[in-house]
Amino acid sequence: MNVETAAPVHLTPEFIAKTENEVTPHWGELGWVTYKRTYARWLPEQGRNEEWPETVQRVVEGNINLDPRLQADTVDPQVIDDLTQEAQNLFKLIYGLAATPSGRNLWISGTEYQHRNGDALNNCWFIAVRPQAYGDSHIIPSYLKPEQIAASMPFSFMFDQLMKGGGVGFSVTPNNVKQMPQVDNHVDLTVLIDSESDSYDASLKLGAVDKSDWMHANSLADTRYYRLPDTREGWVLANANMIDAHFDGTNPDDKTKVVLDISDIRPKDAPIHGFGGTASGPMPLVEMLFDINSILNDAVGRKLTAVDCTDMGNMIGKTVVAGNVRRSAELALGGSEDDDFITMKQDKDKLYHHRWASNNSVAVDSSFTDYQPIADSIQHNGEPGIVNLGLSRDYGRLIDGRQEGIDEAVEGTNPCGEISLSNGEPCNLFEVFPSVAEEQGWQLEDAFGLGARYTKRVTFSHYDWEVSRDAIQKNRRIGVSMSGIQDWILKTFKHRVVTGFEAKRDDTTGKTVMAPIYNQTAVKRFSDLYAAVVKADKDYSDTLGCQPSIKHTTVKPSGTVAKLAGVSEGMHFHYARYLIQRIRFQDSDPLLPALKASGYKVEPDVYSQNTMCVEFPVQAAHADQAAFATAGEVSMAEQFATQAFLQTYWSDNAVSCTVTFQPEEGDQISDLLMQYRNTIKSTSLLPYSGADFKQAPKEPIDANTYTEKCAEITADVAETFAAMTGNHDQKDIELVDQSDCAGGACPIR
Questions:
Q1: Which of 513, 448, 509 is nearest to 479 (CA)?
Q2: Which residues pair with 413 in a beta bridge?
Q3: Would you state the torsion angle of the CA atoms of residues 624, 627, 628, 633, taken in this order, to the nearest 10 degrees?
Q4: Interior angle at CA 91, CA 90 and CA 96, nearest 5
């Protein structure tokens, strides 16, 4: 066998030019604008942002070169040839918008930041809130040994991943929270800042004190002192120092005065290298440190509650929203009988201060039957969601039957609920748009197989935390999703997947329920595609000499990414047949003149300063078909049944679904949760909201209004933008209100 020195796999300019001539990207009506403002990276040497072919090349090359065979000292030339061919296929698939990796990969893959921080390729994470060891991780407080457990660790993990742009699900279920030690010490917290800092005045207003004055009047000898470096890790360690001082087991010197020096933190609006964006200054951190310290001081002499721990997590999330990634996503998973947790958002003052920062769900198993209190809470405020850990641990697809302990380490889920996860584990996503893929000539088995191989390579990234490395190496979990599901079902099967209902007796309750009847052709097609993903994973795992992935498929909610191709989001039904979609931009965004010149309505945002609101007329695919139904028309029962279909025949992980309901359907919630307790791994519900306030993000309109709005658009915005600017874009401008998830929960990057 001939071998040669390892070389990265590259796509040639000739191949890319040829593909551009042969394949037309399936841009949705919002697609190019969404891409340009969300995923096109700044190219400093050229003074502009990327164009779509450059983004796809970066993403594909960043992923294909993760193949562990390329890391060897010598590489078989055949491996290079095979991976080059695969890279070309991936490029065609993604360039045409027949499929995409997650939004995180679109933003980070192929960048220098990816090589420094493999965590950045994963959208979301899960951590159990209980004392844990930091282990062999990139963050270890100096006063701890790697193997020493600490109450701060889950909060440090959460803070770190949120600041890297990932969402975090965290468990505050009774079995976790009861492991937290009693809070032993009241901590006197002092935050110092030098008078030379640009953040001096703003920090003093939040409780910081002048460093020179304090040092002159006090000694550091009896304090736990930490001077923060101007890094993400510095913020995490400052919080850890403060938390751990409250517990005797992590306060070996019995020092209850904590002094944190923030003088070196860069000021507000300074650029952040690597991940991108601009700094918030230390002010959000100062507020968070005092708020969390207050919670811990109030708990001296007792153990922390689930509400305490959730508040601490929410305060971290609030800080990150004000910081460099501008948004965060959290899911707090509590006990199903913890009334304090279930009702914690009814405290409006705390809701507006920090409790908005997480979606809250409760953990159940199939033996749980008391859904009425949960249903009552859902009707009032849309929470909590439901996560069935028992189903997640013992089942893949429901049609494959109970497989005791197939995923026994599962403890929670990511913030959007499509992936059940063990402690420290991330979700790892890729999605195919089946109707677009078929239009472009793809065999769906091939498209989904490429997605399986893409996600498998992500598991070979470098991960910062030992707890994550252990979980990823054990499970190699992947999540190949499909989006535009309703579009594809109508196009392929000419009917929605639920063809009717029939009366059946629930063996446990004795009640009669209306069980769904499914299109059997759809049942077979979804099962065949699942088998294709499993086979692609097994074949690639055999090639790489690693174990097959513990689970393979999912349905993610897909907010921003679905807009690129203009397809329905995840499994969700289109919001309306015709609608005005409003997108908010910073008022300095260079796209705005091009949008205005192209005929789009642009007006000041009525809710935010320095923000403009742009209207886009949108028509749902197949809106004129008899079988089409919108989220405002389809029954809650059919939405549950559709989610159950996907959990039974497609997803061995979980299915992200936000079931919308009309006011008159509220009394059905408890019965439907009970009916599907053995079928659905996670779900959430929200009342359906039309355009009932000014500049609503989505406003239903009729066909005539849609036609009139379209007639006002006189030019292609991409062509107008190119003509006006020569494609010389502006750095670090982004859509204000976009997210990866239908409910606006997960971060776009």
A1: 448
A2: 420
A3: 120
A4: 105
Give the 3-state secondary structure of residue 584: strand
Contacts of 237 (CB under 8 A, 6+ apart): 139, 141, 156, 226, 228
CB 420 within 8 A of CB 407: yes
Helix (H) or strand (E) holding 59: helix 52-64
Q: What is the 3-state secondary structure of 128-194?
A: ECCCEECCCCCCCCCCCCCCCEECCHHHHHHHHHHHCCCEEEEECCHHHHCCCCEECCCCEEEEEEC
Report the distance separating Cα 399 and Cα 653, nearest Å. 13
Laid out side by side, the sheet with 330-335 consists of 124-128, 167-171, 330-335, 359-364, 385-388, 682-687, 658-661
Q: Where are the alpha helices (DSSP H) in 245-388?
A: 283-298, 306-321, 339-342, 348-353, 372-381
Amino acid letter for position 244: D
Q: Return the number of other C-beta atoms located less than 10 Å from residue 71's C-beta.
A: 11
Specify the 3-state DSSP secondary structure of 133.
strand
Specify the DSSP class assigned to residue 48: E
Helix, strand, or coil (residue 621): coil
Measured CA to CA in angstroms, residue 474 lies from 122, 469, 499, 547 at distances of: 17, 8, 40, 8
% the chain with pLDDT above 70: 93
pLDDT tens, residue by residue, 433-475: 999 999 999 999 999 999 999 999 999 999 999 999 999 999 9
pLDDT, tens digit, 9 for 90 and up, residues 120-178: 899 899 999 999 999 999 999 999 999 999 999 999 999 999 988 889 999 999 999 99
The tokens for 454 are: 């893409």
Instruction: Please report, as a single letter, which amino acid is at residue 274.
Output: G
Tokens of 187: 């901590």
Strands 188-193 and 257-261: parallel
Residue 411, helix vs strand vs coil: strand
Q: Which of 278, 357, 268 is nearest to 311 (CA)?
A: 357
The answer to whether the peptide bond before residue 384 is cis (omega within 30 degrees of 0) is yes
Cβ atoms of 394 and 445 closer than 8 Å: no
Reading phi first (left if > 0) and then psi (alpha if -120 to 50, else beta), residue 719 is in alpha
The string of DSSP letters for 539-569 reads HHHHHHTSPPPS--B-B---SHHHHHHT---
Assess contact for 336 and 366: CB atoms under 8 A: no
Amino acid residing at 309: C
Cα–Cα distance, 153 to 135 (Å, whole number): 10
Distance CA 104, CA 122 (A): 6
Q: What is the DSSP letter of 149?
A: E
**φ and ψ at residue 430, rounded to 5 degrees:** -150, 140
Distance between CA 592 and CA 589 in Å, rounded?
Answer: 6
Three-point CA angle 55, 529, 559, nearest 5° = 45
Angle 549-552-556 (CA atoms, 0-180°, nearest 5)? 140
What is this structure's pTM?
0.93
DSSP 455-480: HHHHTTS--S-HHHHHHHHHH---EE
Measured distance CA(562)–CA(464) in Å, rounded: 30
Tokens 């360690």 locate to 237
Known catalytic residues are 416, 418
